[in-house]
Amino acid sequence: METAAQWVARISPQLRTGIAAHPGHEAALRRYFESWLIPAEESATSRSLRHLTHFMSAVWVFSLDAGPGGMTFSRLSELLDRAGLGAGPRARPMLLYLRFIGYIEPVPQADRDGRVKRWRPTARMAAAFRQRLKDELAVTAALDEAVAAVLARFDDEAVFGRFMLALGEIGLAMLTSYEARMADDPEEAATNIFSKRVGGMVVMAELLLSGGPGAPFPASGPVRFSLAGLARRSGISRMNVRRMLAAAEKAGLLTRLGESEVDLDPGLGERVTDLFAFTVHSYGYCARRALDEAG
């Protein structure tokens, strides 16, 4: 089976055509972005993992732990640097944060070679990620039979472990190629406005779903919102929401019409449709890898 890097190199926007033609696509697309909305009862720990850097750092903990050499600060730092998510300044605080919330623990001296300190995911972390990914796989299962098959076996430790390993490889290959494309294509960089900012994906989902149940999705044109409510539900300050919207306007994703209204460019809807298609195909690749390697 092709490597994650080979798979990412050949994936193209045209692949969304097949996904969009599926009769369950529209409902799945809406459900996927609804899953980004933060429930009032969600814990601060779970909420923090909605940020791309936090989420991918946690995924790479699983990947590194499953690979040769295990999970160390230096190896996590290297991955963050290669992915364009920051090296030392972010890796050490991220390691400390994951340790603080009980998501990683030191590997006992008796279980490791040498003097380099290694870390491993805790049972709490595995349970949290298994449930989160189950929810996302359930949204996309109707669009790919391999996803449905891996979802049925996701409690199998071997299947879950191989899926997380593949997901980590996909994330690194995707972010590495993405950083290279951004240098030559300002439009590619525009997607960073939401994806790489704390609370960004939540803000984007809130805006795209602003039409409510039954309204066209993704929303486009003028949409109204409460700035205070948007800030509260996304877990960031009103100032950060304003800055995010200003950056999105500069990138051509929307036009601000006032304090509580923006005009969403149709191009934003196209971008999120592509993002969803990539997500479905990524989970399909990871599912096939996991099922093939776990047996």
What do you see in this structure?
35% of the residues are buried. The chain has helices at residues 4-10, 16-20, 25-34, 44-48, 52-66, 73-82, 88-100, 123-140, 145-152, 157-184, 186-189, 192-195, 200-208, 227-234, 238-250, 266-294; strands at 104-106, 119-121, 221-224, 254-258, 261-264. It is mainly alpha-helical and 295 residues long. Helix 1 (4-10) crosses helix 10 (157-184) and helix 10 packs antiparallel against helix 16 (266-294). The longest helix has 29 residues, at 266-294. Strands 3-5-4 form a three-stranded antiparallel beta sheet. The protein has a two-stranded antiparallel ribbon with strand order 1-2. The mean pLDDT is 83.
- Computed CA radius of gyration, to the nearest angstrom: 19 Å
Number of strands: 5
Low-confidence stretches: none
From the N-terminal CA to the C-terminal CA, the straight-line distance is 14 Å
Fraction of residues in helix: 55-70%
Q: Which class do the helix and strand fractions yield?
A: mainly alpha
Q: Biggest sheet, strands in spatial order? A: 3-5-4
Could you tell me the mean pLDDT?
83
Strand-residue fraction?
5-15%
Note the main sheet: 3 strands, antiparallel
Helical segment count: 16
Shape: globular
The helix/strand series, from N terminus to C terminus, equals: HHHHHHHEEHHHHHHEHHEEH
